[in-house]
Amino acid sequence: MEKKKIITIFGTRPEAIKMAPLVKELEKREGIVSKVCVTAQHREMLDQVLEYFDINPDFDLNIMKNKQSLTGITNRVLEGLEEIFSKEKPDMVLVHGDTTTTFSGALAAFYQQIKVGHVEAGLRTHNKYFPFPEEMNRKLTASLADLHFAPTKNSKKNLIKEGVNEKDIYITGNTVIDAMHHTVKEDFKFSIDLLNNIDYINKKVILITAHRRENWGEGINNICEALNRIVKENEDVELIYLVHLNPIVRDVVYEKLGNNERIHLLNPLDTNETHNLMNKCFMVMTDSGGLQEEAPHLGKPVLVLRDVTERPEAVEYGTVKLVGTDVEKIVYEANKLIKNEDEYLKMSRATNPYGDGYASKRIADIIENYFNIRKLEIKEFLK
């Protein structure tokens, strides 16, 4: 039988982390020709992941520009992929999640009538501007996709409500859990001396990330004010803030937090370092989507610095709590975990609903079944 060509597309670090184990799984399949295209919507942070997982892209659009707009990203991805798809004629394109690369990749494939597989499908906040533009990116991608790889039962329900045929939806778990089986090590040594020398046992070390577009301006200012107060009110607390490279975020964070000796401001870390830092920390505060899935896998409570989340499962299971960007609420909920061991244990011991480490294998099996390469039994992830 003729092999089927699958092109996996991603452009940001979070996408790369979650697609890397799937790329490696597809490479093992004899009936599949696996190729990788990166758009480099985020250049430096993407390259860190590619190097760690030893992925050498077959195509690199290298679209990133200073102060790039969503329109510019969309146009450059569409134009770049048009040429690649015309030449390569893949049988299926795989996209991930909710970035502008995701939607643009699905649209470019649709324009050439190429099948689309959507990894991490079905996440919804049901508010098209929160998060922006991610909520509409994933909804629009769903309308273009042929196979929907939903990480949870709730994600599948969202897709069915929107009219997606149930037979095209598979619950796979989230591939980020697959990635963490490779990255987290108990004897891990960081490349930054500061991280090796912090007292993770006697100090309550909190990992922070906050950079999402909807938090620019007042949101980031409020978060910084809350972090200063948390440190001031708790002598046993140290913060490690991984500061996004975007100057809109970076300038505010360094101005507000740069002079506090118990707040350590660092550039974003490589994937393996981020996962291992999370493993050593007391808890996580973030507006990131991925960390809401990753931290519970390690038994770390998460306070989400957003008003809504497209990952409600962790809220329902008790591993994650929404606190928004209100200063008083952030400080109150953080202090509750810092000072009350019972509250902390309640969150840290809750079940993680996002995966078992076999999502990539399930997705590859489903693709082989779809193209009649092999007939394989599919056991969905049902938490």
UniProtKB/TrEMBL annotation:
Q: Which residues form the signal peptide?
A: none
Listed Gene3D superfamilies:
Glycogen Phosphorylase B (3.40.50.2000)
Q: What is its EC number?
A: 5.1.3.14
Q: Name one Pfam family in it.
A: Epimerase_2
Top-rank taxon? Bacteria
Q: Which CDD domains match?
A: GTB_UDP-GlcNAc_2-Epimerase (cd03786)
Q: Where is the UDP-N-acetylglucosamine 2-epimerase domain?
A: 24-368
KW rRNA processing (keyword) present:
no
Identify the keywords attached in UniProt to this record, alphabetized: Isomerase
| InterPro entries reported for this sequence | UDP_GlcNAc_Epimerase_2_dom, WecB-like
Q: Name one GO molecular function term.
A: UDP-N-acetylglucosamine 2-epimerase activity
Entry's family note: Belongs to the UDP-N-acetylglucosamine 2-epimerase family.
Q: Would you tell me the protein name for this molecule?
A: UDP-N-acetylglucosamine 2-epimerase (non-hydrolyzing)
